[in-house]
Design brief:
The complex is a heterodimer of chains A (257) and B (361). Chain A is of the alpha/beta class and 257 residues long. Chain A is built from ten helices and nine strands. Chain A has a single domain, classed as Rossmann fold. Chain A is globular, with a radius of gyration of 19 Å. Chain B folds into two domains: 191 residues, Rossmann fold; 111 residues, Rossmann fold. In chain B, helix 7 links the parallel strand 6 and strand 7. Chain B is globular and about 75 Å long. Classes of the chains: A alpha/beta (257), B alpha/beta (361). Chains A and B meet through strand 1, strand 2, helix 3 and helix 5 of A and helix 4, helix 5 and strand 9 of B. The complex binds thiamine diphosphate. Thiamine diphosphate binds next to helix 4 and strand 5 of chain A.
Chain lengths: 257, 361
């Protein structure tokens, strides 16, 4: 056998172990190298394909680095004002209860300006899925302090390290929303290894299944990195995340009812 | 037709919404308009027509619910009063930027700040000049009776879907709270999913069907060149509204030497003032703008060869008078008379202001 025919035999349908989901568009992503948004997008897109709900899914994109999430997932999208995605999602699910509606929000978006909207959507138990990407920083605007920034963490607006006495304490949003009777499923995941992504996908699948069964609000926090904002290499970022973020934001399911 | 009732202006807004096939109302209580949501909650339209009614956690959330619902091609609305509309400014500019239809109702009260709960017209600038950020306009309708509160609900939806632009009913605490005879509209069914697909299929985010282009409801374009092209398109739309949608009423104008320009409650006061003035031998008429945007600029200009002076009567410190002056371009004197902070002018005061300004008394 020649090398070419050998290759042809390998590239055949029965040997296929992986393919890019068609729910993910071919557009080149604008995210920085090492950013977690892209991996999370892919996980969500793959679950949408697996569950065959592409035609029924409506995403609400935030303000922040992932404001352009609609450029990457081939579904209908609404682009919300900073923090307001849960309000758009509320109306969308109320007016079209048979659809799968999700918001995709950063920590500045969800925990700061949109703190009221997320608490109340959770408290009302809207039948939606919330993806909360916690990278502990405002990525898009150049690395300012977020509500989730860790104590002592250096950011553009906490240049001497976050001083909790004057800036408050890093907010544990998942813990807060898990206390609300309206939330059905609350979990904290990550996406830095293949194993973590597999777990994340399982959580995403469960969340959309909750929507299908009209069970109410599923909240998935994903602890992620922001190499640009953290001023670290992607590898350093992952290490720093494991060392500093995971102890304060422990991974795992907080609520599953 | 023929369903005649004695109702409050605010209650009529709610009833008209149910009857015109509105899909969703999202609001937050504030005086003097809380009866709108209260009436909806009593009426339970969810059971009758399927219309969804949600008490949001804030005006900010309410208007963003409207944004989400409008994105789905649904007939959605909110209502509030002045401080609440300021909070809604964020969502309103997003609606305008995403070119979405929606009905906004402002039952104005006196300000600034928390102000008073008494009626005023001091949100004119906010309503017709933008109010939020960016170059945008709302379609603004100003009812002067409870009947028009009924009629303008359906009309607002019609215009806002025609132009894919939010429309506002700018009313005030007088008309919201007063009771009058009203002939209610007949019931229209809510649009079905198929009808929405037909009417709004190119933009409504109802789920991407195989073989058709996905839809994105957004006001974002980071490319300035494209943003400018988009802004050109918006401005062309506003010019088309100015061409086609101006609505106004003229009362006693044929022989008028002087002209009142007034809208809403102030226009009603002017009608009484006309009677008083005419009894004194002063020939005065009224031009009542019904659409505040687009403004009846041409109709005011048409009066210029005839009248010697124009008095803009408003429950504000002088807001609409600027649009009257722009129309008049200095060709005749234009003065303003207003009471504000929640005080309603009397017809006698209006006549006195006319005399003082134009008759040297
Ligand atoms: C009303 C409003 N305020 C402020 C901003 C500016 N802004 C854009 S993105 C952002 C922070 C987003 O941070 P986060 O939600 O953590 O997302 P990330 O960029 O880190 O993914 C801010 C403050 C805005 N667009 N709108």
């Amino acid at each position: 056998m020649t090398a070419t025919t050998e290759l042809k035999n390998i590239i055949s349908e029965e040997n296929k172990v992986y393919g890019k989901t068609s729910v993910l568009l071919d557009n080149e992503m604008h995210y920085c190298p090492g950013c977690t948004h892209g991996v999370i997008h892919k996980a969500i897109a793959e679950v949408i394909e697996d569950m065959d709900i592409q035609e029924e899914t409506i995403g609400v994109s935030p303000v922040g680095c992932s404001v352009l999430a609609y450029n990457y997932l081939d579904i209908d999208w609404q682009q919300a004002a900073h923090g307001r995605a849960p309000a758009l999602a509320t109306a969308t699910t109320r007016l079209m209860p048979e659809k799968y509606v999700f918001t995709y929000q950063g920590d500045g978006d969800l925990a700061s300006i949109g703190c009221a909207e997320i608490m109340h959507a959770c408290n009302r138990g809207e039948n939606i899925v919330v993806f909360f990407v916690n990278n502990g920083i405002y990525g898009m605007t150049g690395g300012q302090m977020a509500p989730t920034t860790l104590e002592g963490q250096v950011t553009a607006t906490s240049p001497y390290g976050r001083d909790c006495q004057t800036t408050g304490f890093p907010m544990k949003i998942s813990e807060m929303v898990s206390l609300l009777p309206g939330t059905r499923y609350v979990t904290r995941e990550s996406a830095e290894t293949a194993g973590a992504v597999r777990k994340l996908k399982k959580a995403v699948k469960k969340a959309f299944a909750n929507t299908r069964e009209n069970k109410g609000l599923s909240f998935i926090e994903i602890v992620g990195t922001c190499s640009s904002g953290w001023k670290q290499t992607p590898v350093q970022s992952n290490e720093w995340m494991k060392e500093h973020m995971f102890p304060y934001y422990p991974l795992g399911t907080l609520k599953d009812e | 037709m023929g369903d005649i009732r004695l109702m409050k202006g605010n209650e009529v807004i709610a009833e008209a919404a149910i009857r015109c096939g509105c899909d969703g109302y999202f609001g937050y209580p504030i005086t003097p308009q809380s009866e709108i949501m209260e009436t909806l909650m009593i009426r339970r339209p969810e059971q009758e027509t399927g219309m969804v009614v949600v008490q949001a956690e804030s005006e900010v959330a309410a208007i963003n619910m409207v944004y989400g619902g409008a994105s789905c091609g649904k007939k959605v609305m909110t209502s509030s009063s002045s401080p609440g509309i300021s909070l809604k400014a964020e969502g309103i500019t997003y609606l305008a930027g995403a070119e979405l239809p929606a009905l906004l109702v402002n039952i104005v009260r006196g300000g600034p700040g928390l102000g008073t709960i008494q009626p005023a017209q001091s949100d004119y600038f906010q309503a017709v000049k933008g109010g939020g950020h960016g170059d945008y306009k709302l379609i603004v309708l100003a009812p002067a009776s409870v009947q028009e509160m009924n009629d303008f609900v359906d009309l607002s939806f019609e215009l806002s879907f025609k132009y894919l632009n939010p429309a506002m009913i700018l009313s005030d605490g007088v008309i919201g709270q007063m009771m009058e005879k009203v002939e209610l509209s007949d019931f229209k069914p809510r649009w079905t999913a198929e009808e929405i697909e037909k009417i709004s299929g190119s933009w409504a985010t109802t789920g991407k069907k195989k073989g058709i282009k996905r839809r994105i409801s957004t006001s974002l374009d980071l490319d300035s060149a494209k943003q400018e092209v988009f802004n050109h398109k918006l401005q062309a739309k506003y010019r088309a509204m100015e061409e086609n949608e101006v609505r106004f009423e003229k009362i006693d104008c044929d022989d008028a030497d002087y002209l009142f320009v007034a809208y809403g409650s102030s226009a009603r006061i002017c009608q009484k003032a006309i009677e008083i003035a005419r009894a004194k031998g002063i020939k005065v008429g009224l031009l009542r703008p019904i659409t505040l945007f687009p403004y009846p600029t041409k109709q005011i200009q048409e009066m210029l060869g005839q009248v010697k002076g124009i008095l803009s009567v408003e429950m504000s410190a002088g807001q609409m008078v600027e649009d009257v002056r722009l129309a008049v371009e200095g060709k005749v004197p234009v003065e303003h008379f207003g009471r504000y902070g929640g005080i309603i002018p009397t017809p006698d005061e209006v006549v006195e202001a006319l005399e003082q300004n134009f008759l040297g008394e």
